[in-house]
Amino acid sequence: MEALKQKIREEGIVLSEQVLKVDAFLNHQIDPKLMQQIGHEFAVRFRDQKITKIVTIEASGIAPAVMAGLELGIPVIFARKYQSLTLKDNLLTSKVYSFTKQTESTIAVSAKHLTADDHVLVIDDFLANGRAAKALIDVIQQAGASIAGIGVVIEKSFQVGRNELDQQGFRVESLARISSLADGKVSFLE
Amino acid sequence: MEALKQKIREEGIVLSEQVLKVDAFLNHQIDPKLMQQIGHEFAVRFRDQKITKIVTIEASGIAPAVMAGLELGIPVIFARKYQSLTLKDNLLTSKVYSFTKQTESTIAVSAKHLTADDHVLVIDDFLANGRAAKALIDVIQQAGASIAGIGVVIEKSFQVGRNELDQQGFRVESLARISSLADGKVSFLE
């Protein structure tokens, strides 16, 4: 997706060979117009899949997921990474280890909103080691729902997540695929 | 806003005289179409205010804020409640005490994205005791930015937040104002 790559080139900051900072338009400040374009692109790629629900994870997945949900006309669920006062009962949970923070956390989705009748599109801001995506897949499968695919805004293709999801047979659609962050420079897969 | 009140009547769950659960369309599962209507309503109410930026707080404020930002054509910043790997330097912070969780946390906004030139609309999902709103106002004022007003999706008018913000001279626009959750029933202010 060219508009996204352009934005990454202009406003992304390479913090290390592993970490790209996109706080200017996705992870802290959000560009709503770009999110609408991203949502549109996910909708185009998955429109024929009879998706009933989008599942994402708080917080940075919410904006692109809601824009895709608006265009597809379906609800969005955001998995909780942190405890919620009103989300306590009937939870589907999965553990996710964060390499960047070196902590293990638990994500939770209410079984009330996700059932065996659902055909789910997973959306997330980043795909790196794939731990968050796998935890989302785990809770969706616990609900008995099927998975149409995984929509990713920015994929770090040089990390293992994409390959592992491919090997497991999931359809992954990433709108920007980064082959390297070496030498302080963003290189895209063509 | 009638569509919102209708949704609260149909899908809101009164957990106690203090707590309304709206996990079906706002706090866990999100109704994107309703969020678009909510964003439109905020945009209509604040359109003449020359707002340059919307500030909200993760996670449930993001969807309504991004829809309002889309319609107003301005960026959205979501304050971080939790530590972020890529958000570390040049932070404006404020402490917020959560009555419901009985914990104190720190919210953070990057000074890079909020400056004295900004005229800010604050958006949040709930207004109850007003602690989150006041912490957002604090970080915005630390940046030297001005505040156009506060847009709230659901106000619990029987708690102190609304009155206190009124007394401090802030313009508060709440799309649904709840006068009581007594007897397991949602009553709206007319």
UniProtKB/TrEMBL annotation, chains A, B:
Keywords on record: Cytoplasm, Glycosyltransferase, Purine salvage, Transferase
Enzyme type, top EC level: transferase
A Gene Ontology biological process term: XMP salvage
Pathway: Purine metabolism; XMP biosynthesis via salvage pathway; XMP from xanthine: step 1/1
Pfam family for this entry, one: Pribosyltran
Domain (Phosphoribosyltransferase): residue spans on this chain: 32-157
GO MF annotations in UniProt: xanthine phosphoribosyltransferase activity
GO cellular component: cytoplasm
EC number of this enzyme: 2.4.2.22
Residues the entry annotates as binding 5-phospho-alpha-D-ribose 1-diphosphate: A128, N129, G130, R131, A132
Catalytic reactions on record: XMP + diphosphate = xanthine + 5-phospho-alpha-D-ribose 1-diphosphate
Superkingdom of origin: Bacteria
Subcellular location: Cytoplasm
Binding site for xanthine: L20, N27, K156
Matches recorded under PANTHER family: HYPOXANTHINE/GUANINE PHOSPHORIBOSYLTRANSFERASE (PTHR43864), XANTHINE PHOSPHORIBOSYLTRANSFERASE (PTHR43864:SF1)
Subunit structure: Homodimer.
Function: Converts the preformed base xanthine, a product of nucleic acid breakdown, to xanthosine 5'-monophosphate (XMP), so it can be reused for RNA or DNA synthesis.
Family stated for the protein in its record: Belongs to the purine/pyrimidine phosphoribosyltransferase family. Xpt subfamily.
Protein known as: Xanthine phosphoribosyltransferase
Organism per entry: Pseudomonas segetis
